[in-house]
Amino acid sequence: MNRVFIKTYGCQMNERDSDAVAAMLRERGYAIVDSEAEADIILLNTCSVREQAEQKAIGKAGRLLKARRLGLNAAAMTTGDSATPPPPGAPPLRLVGVIGCMAQNRGAALLDSLPDLDLVAGTQKFHRVPDHLDNLLAGLRALGPRPASIVDTEGEPGSQNTISAHSSHRAVSAFVSIMQGCDMNCTYCIVPKTRGRERARPMDEIVDEVRALAERGTKEVVLLGQLVNHYGLREFPTVDGKSPFVQLLEKINALDGIERIRFTSPHPAGFRADLVDCYRRLPKLCEDIHLPVQSGSDRILRAMRRTYTRERYLRIVEALRAANPAMRFSTDIIVGFPGETDADFEETLSLFDAVRFDMAFIFKYSPRSGTPAESLGDTVPREIKELRNQILLGRLETFSNASHRALVGTVREVLVECPSRKGNGLFMGRDRGGRKVLFPGTSGDVGRLLNIHVEKATTTVLMGTVA
User: Fold this and answer.
1) Which tops the pLDDT comparison, 1 or 101?
2) How far apart, in whole angstroms, are the C-alpha atoms of residue 318 and residue 314?
């Protein structure tokens, strides 16, 4: 049967990796299905940024393996009712695999808690997944003992070049992976362990991939990397004062069919004058930046090894707003890092107020095994973390509301992506700042750039009609 369902946890990089694995499996003859109930093979593409994310994926894998032992379909386990038989025609589970960051982080140790797991494939082995599934299925067909688990987490040179295939369906906006890995070694972060050292893809191969997407109807690309604006710093030369990343942006900006370019996630240390200047001169580069700050306290930034100061970060924001006054900023912030005092948090709060972020991902610090910060302990009480988290969320809601209300009565250029989940004839698109916009439309609008007159706004969405 060979029907595969891929469940993805975590960031856009994981989404892109899952899409590439799906494309490679489809090319090998596997069917990619949209629900667990349809699948006889389930792959969990996992995240390791927080312990909670790993535990969630381990719990999910455990429930799937229990369903298989009981001869049930995966859907039976989602309700927690082990007595529920599979729906008519639903295939029983044959293979369960864990791929991605948690597989890389835990490796063969996953089999200690999940001994029935069939596949553990790390972040440099996504392209090996079709071969591994073929081998496991061949073992099942042999009618002998169940084939031994496959664990594949060794580093592999050139693996960053294998994430280039895309699913066959037409996508208005598409993720494009341009590099893998991270060399920054922030003390709280496990990404260097799970993704390895920085490794860039050849520039011409990326441009060819984007050109092929444009020919299939893609209008917007989102360039991905753990430190996306560090692209190629060690592999490729600076030309006329322009970094390899800026050179890549220029080449994509020149491609016919591509209307918009975004990227995530950059590091403030990589925002030099040549990149800032792109927001003046590259018309397809959207004024929408996710710029992680993590803390507004220089003392905490040093403890985190973030390699910039509060002043440097605010100068970058000022320079970007000078380049394009419409710039929209989002960020990541950690509250409760070991040793964070009330004074440190006040520094974060004042930076938050100075920038007036439109969007932020605010995390309560939790130690990650294997990171340098683990030795610092977890010194900030849980209730203090929760209070600081809620204060920032309240500020964020205020800023988002104000930003959206200011756009009521204006006309926004919107790239239409899909029908809205709300239904009622509504369609969803995004303006150049990345804001969601809902409006009455038709299926023929998908993929088009439309001018939308904004009539209402909430904290998360704009609503209007075609101007």
Assistant:
1) 101
2) 6
